[in-house]
Amino acid sequence: MHASTFKLSRRQFLYAGAAASSLATLGCSSSSVSTQTPSTATVNTAEAIPLNFNENPLGLAPKAQQAVLEALPNAWRYPDAARSDLMATIASNLSLETSQLIYGNGSSEVLKMALDALVQTNTQLVMPDPSYGVIIDYAMARGVPVVKVKLDGDWQTDLGAMKAKVAAHNGPSIVYLCNPNNPTGLLLPQSELNQWLDQASSQLSFIVDEAYVEYVAQPGFVSAIERVKQGQKHIVVCRTFSKIYALAGLRVGYGVAHGELIKAMQAQASIDNANLIGCVAAKASLRSQQWLELSLKSNSQAKELVYKQLEALGLDYLPSETNFIFHKVNGDSELYMQRMSKAGILVGRPFNHGEGWNRLSIGTPAQMQYFCKTLAKFRELGWV
Prior knowledge:
This protein is an alpha/beta fold. The chain is 40% helix and 14% strand. The protein contains 13 helices and 13 strands. Helix 8 (225-229) links the parallel strand 8 (204-209) and strand 9. It is globular. The two termini are 24 Å apart.
């Protein structure tokens, strides 16, 4: 979802103007960031800080930028070789066979291919709510009923309730799980998840979305890819280069599954769905370990700044294994978005069952310092 164009009432406009005036006294203004390093990045007065799409604010790794420049003269050629090269690199890194991988125009296309390949007569899609919702559109287009299971009281994916929905259905079920979940940033309970994944069958298949897996720091985390390696034929794991690798605009994703399921997904893929520039940038990104570590460090430092500010204001939040934080705002979510937008910050949209909460993408430490000052000023104005 892209940022909405807000229509403010006169009263809301005056409130927003008051916030902007107050923030000016702090030396803050509408801003964007210099994409350098956590220590050198600064906030510049140019455009709104984009803290709404969970992007990597440091941008492409230098090796990826160089690879793009070198590939541009060959952009007239089809991407087959570059795609094959990328998939071979991914396979090597993950100890997989290339037959267990499929390329996607972003992980969103992988989700569609997975659903299309797994759907049968009388299939239902079972998923948490709220969670990443693009798969709902794909299911609706195929006439597949979607069963949404509300997160539990701790904002955790309720695997027990989801199992009950599967058991009650007289037919096949596709279970979609985002791990860590978006918008909460929480990992699913590992042991319970693994036990359920091991039950996958022709009547119970899983699509596991690991878009934020590179950010996970929790000890003991095990990717669902391990189930695929063990021979499980009814699990698809979706990954993307849009998040920590900062290639959201180049649309590079991939799926991991048993070779037989990959063939079924390939039959659903669009022809020539890869682009050469994205492929070479993704491969170079995988060779940019120092940049990956820098991105993780920046994200961790910036999250800590926000955690401390939220704690100081007494606003609840969920400790995140991603590059965003789901936190309380004590008020109308839409109005909060509007006020932040007027203050030069774009924050996340409302989610089902999340009134009074907001998903905040993590920018650079400099950006998050500005956000913290803004949030503190909002408290002074009685808005949060």
